[in-house]
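We were asked to recover a plausible sequence for a given structure. The inputs and outputs are reproduced exactly as logged, with field labels preserved.

PROBLEM: sequence recovery
POSITIONS: 324
GIVEN STRUCTURE:
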């Protein structure tokens, strides 16, 4: 296997002498509107999650499918966006398109989480930020002065963790940690992992077949794992390769229902399918949707696939809520 791709050039980054990155990509931002139009289907606003860590959350609330004022509430989706570990997508237009569709079509309150980036911050710090968001949602519901969208409309007994790409990885490991904790009255009832990012040292067939993938070539995947894993660890660390035995293994059978979405053109396909097999082996209730076309992050460039993925997630949430 060989590749002439320069991963730094492909990712538009430069590594500085102090170990930080210069990021040359500037993604378009979606900024909250102080006075949204009355006919806006979704409104959103930002809150500080952890001032010391400089993390935030963005709350999205539907306006056209709110429950009547009779105590009925809507589920809460805690969303971990893509970042490829090193680049913030949290407040971008492309993330807003997805979160606003979820908020409007499920309908649900969607809490999008900003987490720290690698290599300046390495795993498990991103998992810590992800757990901060769960605890923040719980605090808002219980605090008399908490965020009123959550207090007035959200049902913290119907929370879903959702992540795309490395956000799917974060959703998995955060769900494991949450399963060990006492969070009542907050309850996580489902985990949604769209094209979760995993890896390993030994190459899989899908990695070899897609090593020069134009979106996310294998050399770029290797580099971002080098940035994000704890120093001195390789890609068979359980953060990257959850199939290996580790301290996470004993909690897998405590997971609630999971949805895993993947595409056959994704170099990580084999790892995602092995991940599903592992969940099944631990008797986790699992819905797996693997499509015989597409590629990694297809929903970013193809609105039809975005709509399709949102519909899959909506059905999963409705079906989960209808189960005893």
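RECOVERED SEQUENCE:
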């Amino acid at each position: 296997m060989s590749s002439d791709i320069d991963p730094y050039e492909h990712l538009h980054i430069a590594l500085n002498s102090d170990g930080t990155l210069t990021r040359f990509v500037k993604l378009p931002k979606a900024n909250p509107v102080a006075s949204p139009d009355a006919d806006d289907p979704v409104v959103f606003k930002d809150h500080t999650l952890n001032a010391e860590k400089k993390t935030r959350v963005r709350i999205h609330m539907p306006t056209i499918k709110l429950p009547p004022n009779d105590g009925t509430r809507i589920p809460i989706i805690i969303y971990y966006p893509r970042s490829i570990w090193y680049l913030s997508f949290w407040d971008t237009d492309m993330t807003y398109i997805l979160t606003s569709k979820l908020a409007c079509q499920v309908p649900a309150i969607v809490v999008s989480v900003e987490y720290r980036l690698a290599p300046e911050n390495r795993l498990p710090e991103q998992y810590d930020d992800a757990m901060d968001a769960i605890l923040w949602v719980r605090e808002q519901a219980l605090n008399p002065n908490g965020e009123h969208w959550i207090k007035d409309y959200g049902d913290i007994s119907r929370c879903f963790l959702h992540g795309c790409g490395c956000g799917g990885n974060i959703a998995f490991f955060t769900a494991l940690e949450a399963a060990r904790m006492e969070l009542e009255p907050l309850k996580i009832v489902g985990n949604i992992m769209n094209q979760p990012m995993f890896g390993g040292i030994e190459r899989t067939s899908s990695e070899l077949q897609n090593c020069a993938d134009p979106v996310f070539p294998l050399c770029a995947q290797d580099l971002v794992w080098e940035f994000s894993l704890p120093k001195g660890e390789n890609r068979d660390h359980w953060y990257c390769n959850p199939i290996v035995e580790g301290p996470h293994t004993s909690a897998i059978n405590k997971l609630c229902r999971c949805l895993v979405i993947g595409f056959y053109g994704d170099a990580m396909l084999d790892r995602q399918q092995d991940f599903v097999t592992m969940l099944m082996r631990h008797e986790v209730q699992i819905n797996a949707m693997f499509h015989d076309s597409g590629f990694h992050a297809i929903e970013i460039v193809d609105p039809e696939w975005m709509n399709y993925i949102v519909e899959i997630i909506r059905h999963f949430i409705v079906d989960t809520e209808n189960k005893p």
